[in-house]
Amino acid sequence: MTEQKRSRVLMEVRDLQMHFPVNHGLLSRKHSVLKAVDGVSFSLLAGETFGLVGESGCGKTTVGRTLVRLYKPTAGEILFDGTDIAPLAEREVLPYRRRMQMIFQDPYASLNPRMTVSSIIGEPMRLQGFPEAEIRERVRELISQVGLKSDHLSRYPHEFSGGQRQRIGIARALATRPEFIVCDEPISALDVSIQAQVINMLEELQEKLGITYLFISHDLSMVSHISHRVGVMYLGHLVEMADMRELYTHNLHPYTQALMSAVPIADPDVAAASQRIVLQGDVPAPIDPPPGCPFRSRCRYCTGACAETMPEMREVSPGHFLACHVKG
Amino acid sequence: MARKKKEHVVLRQEDMLRIPDAETYRELPEEQFRICPEDDEAEAIVRPSTTYWHDVWQRFRRDPMALCGLVFIVLMTLAAILIPRFSPYSYDGFFFKSRNLGPSWEHLCGTDQMGRDIFIRILYGARISLTVGVVAAAINFVIGVIYGGISGYAGGRTDMIMMRIVDILTSLPSLLYIVLIMLVLGSNVGSVILALCFTSWIGTARVVRSEVMRLKHSEYVLAARLSGATPWYLLVHHLVPNAMGPIIVSTAFLIPSAIFSEAFLSFLGIGIQAPQASWGTLANEAIPVMMTYPHQLFFPVAFICLTMFSFNFIGDGLRDALDPRMKH
Description:
heterodimer, A: alpha/beta, Rossmann fold, 2 domains, eight-stranded mixed beta sheet, four-stranded antiparallel beta sheet, globular, B: mainly alpha, MetI-like fold, about 0% strand
């Protein structure tokens, strides 16, 4: 995919917020809010892979699920091809559903064990009201596209290996010819030899079909392999966003630096020379967080300003965005 | 003690160094020669396709008690349907000459005070008992699945209200409303079934609710929602089929309890009325002559016991077969 081709904005996310109410029981008057995603803005170019990284519980998955409208966002805009799909009711989202899909993390949980492979792959089309003959034809086409055989179609998910199941999941995601696919840690449940197989397949499909990916992962090395641009999330906020190469060479946010230092290096000499930044403490709970920078409790550069205001996202160099009071 | 002479195989140097000649090594013909599985063979699945229900049957078959139970129920069902049709005896009437006979080849279980053949009356009773059991279980199944499904899927306030209604229903003393229903609607099979179904679906509903709550966040449900599946579609295609194991188990245990309740009601004289034969009424009629003609009590009670055992063994077998992990 050439640089010129990747210039049309397919999806623009503005100040996305997704809060979940936390119940304290039936009789409690107390109401807390879990701010899973709290003001995230970025845009996706058609045909690119945008990597979203961060540790467990930082809201990556919630962002992904909100973009495909599995959740109705609390606030913010999701402009999909120019239309804001954030405030739409479930019925109104329906026409957009065939244009966006998702690949799930766990290939064992994402396929219904009581359905045959052909009905699993055909399900999105069936739900979108495609004619039955077209579904049958498309399912055969898809199964060979992901490298499985058509006599696998009458089998059940438990008869397949993890990698094969994930390919079935990919075939299902491709069924309605979507322009946008959220890959929610699609390889973290697979073993390493299969990971490469699935990643290469995803890249090939992008090459051929021009699909835009939002690639969610906590594995920076894998994200760096597949992504064109990367956003780093921490506790519901996007803290840094840049081109993959830029982020690798000129990362600025202390959290990004810590993440980068944790990536294993194959060369032992280089590994010995590099300095490992070990973060102290735990991620604070995203329930009713205090004001200020979310990372300040674990940040070694923390100053007075960090406790008072939330740092704004600003462009430190072309295409490189950073939310930090101290750095940049 | 004689020591066994050990044989040592000594490999001499020249043996190991001997170069194999053409006679010991047969060359493979060209068409048989290949290094590793070819690409499309690597994906092939050798095991014949097995469905979930096939596996369940395989496990069920290995449980001798459950199998005995199933055989007994099947035989009794066939007997209850066929034998009364071809038998010279009737379940009602008055036969002065053959009163209170003991068991013989003519009257397998003897005759009662009215000279009626007890075996035939037991088979008529089996018709009623099995009908009551199966119909009550079927009604329970339908109401339980729908009620529990809605409650579990909707969650939140709806679930809370629906479950409190259920709590109120369980707290009613059952004998009270059963007697009331029988008095208002009259004593017949229909009102017995209605009385038994009034609250017994609650168990099934609770099972379905908890299963649906567990399954509704699974990734295959998310995948279906992603393509615009309605709650009804999810319940019918994903949630209920995957909750089928526990649902069937709870329904299977409902059959014997319904049969037992019917026998109990008829025994007390508020269920099926004479001259219609139910196992409960048969036992009731035999009570006054228990000391003189014990066989009149023994046979109906034996049938009740055997049926109870059979259904409970089937239920146990189903539970183990449907969820092997629950087996202790």
